[in-house]
Structures are given as structure tokens and as C-alpha cells.
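Per-record layout

source: Methanoculleus frigidifontis
name: 4Fe-4S ferredoxin-type domain-containing protein
length: 221
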Amino acid sequence: MTTDRQIMDAALAKARDLGATVAGFVPAARLVACPSAVAEGRAGFHTARGSFIVLGLYHDPERPEIDLWEKDRGTPGDRMLARIGGALSRWLADEHGRAAETVPYQITDGGIYLKDAAVLADLGTIGRNNLVIVPGYGPRIRFRAVWTDLEPGEQDLPHPESPCNRCPGYCQLSCPQHAFPNGRYDRAACLARTDADKARAAGQASPADHCRICELVCPAR
Ligand code: SF4
Ligand code: SF4
């Protein structure tokens, strides 16, 4: 009999076949009171049943167009991740008879805290730029998730070492919004820049080219 862990291992390989750069999983129960849910006081997709498969897609700085944001459409990169999630969900249902669905991106739409999920899935560590640093790709990875009723148990992977321990903090030093007062990320200050990027793009009737300075200056690979 095929175990849930074996199906999960096959699903992670399938996700990479479908185009995900990296893939990992976290039991859903571990996200119920994850640090961001506690800090924000908002649960998002909230279940202790099953698991989340976390899908990561490399956003190559040489292909900035996949990160351009359009109102009501998001970014091409996020649509690519949604297509991978949809195909993976269908594969889990068709090949293994398991329940699976792509999780919305936004918490307000019923999404999960993707950065927490990626760290709990041992895909990377949170950097001083408040982004997940993934070995081999640095912070240039975007995430989506698929929920599935698989119960593969816990995994015991080594935690990646943080590259921030040996970096002077180029991300924080380069932020035009000074969004790291006292070394801690200030979401409101960063969002002010995001809103300005959107307003400028709307005025030009073009997709928004959001600030990625703290991501692109990071030397971590
Ligand atoms: S620039 Fe340096 S401190 Fe900032 S996230 Fe990258 S490695 Fe960490
Ligand atoms: S995205 Fe831009 S404004 Fe926001 S924290 Fe990073 S560098 Fe600062």
C-alpha cells in the first residue's frame, strides 16, 4: 500500500516537473499559530487537517517582466505558480484520489502566510530583508501553496544556515524608504512605496514595477 509520505514525495517531484523551482511541505497544524498569524491576529486558511505543499518559483532578475503587477491579475510569475498548483492538485486527485486545492495568494482571500510556510517546510530562512532566503536562489523566489488531505507526518531536514550572519546588511542599508528602523522590517513604510509604485503605474496605464531593491542587492545565493 502506498503511504501518504510516499505520495507526498512523489508530489514534490511532480511539482518540480511542472515547473516549480523548489517544493516542500508542512503539516497544516503547524501553520495554525505560526508567527505571522499571531502577529497579524488573522488566521487566513485555517485547518489542522492535511498538509500544505509549498511551491517556489525563481524570479530571475534577468526576466523582470514576470514580476510586473497588474490590477486584478497579479503578476505573470504568480499566475505561473497558480497553474503549477492547479496541475498538481489535479494530479493528486486523478492519480491518487486525494483532495487538493490551490490556496489563494492573499490572506484576505483565504490564503496562508507563505513565508512562514516556506520556512516551516525547511525551504529557507527569513533574511534581514524580511524575505525567505532559499539556498541556491537567495531571496529571488516567490511562493504559492496547495492544500492536500495527505498526512505524511513530520520531516526532519537540517535548517539552512542564515547568510545574514556574515553580511553587513546591504538590504537594509539600500532601502529608499528606511523601512528597517532599529533593524526590524516596518511593513507600513514598505507598503507606502508599494502604493506609490501602483499609483505611478496607474497613471501611466502600465503594470506596476514594484520595488525589489532589498531583494536584488542581496548577495545570497
Ligand atoms: S543583504 Fe545580507 S543581511 Fe540582507 S538578507 Fe541578504 S544576506 Fe541577509
Ligand atoms: S521592497 Fe523596497 S521599500 Fe520595501 S523594504 Fe525592500 S527596499 Fe525597502
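summary: The mean pLDDT is 93. Residues 164-216 form one domain.
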